[in-house]
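Q: Got a minute? One more chain.
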Amino acid sequence: MHSKDKLNEKVGKIGIVFITSAILVAIFVLWGAFSPSSLNAAANSGLEWMITNFGWFYMLITA
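A: Always. Here it is, folded:
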């Protein structure tokens, strides 16, 4: 009986992770659907930040 409780707890945690992920994906998709220029600006800004701060890491792992 104890293992059944653990299984139910794990299934509940998987459900929470799935629902949270689905909500975040939906928000991102809606952002792109309703304001693509804003999403483009944010994505470009994030990419620029990644290249500036972690470009060395890319060179390290591909060399």
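A: The helical segments are 2-34, 36-62.
Q: Perfect, thanks.
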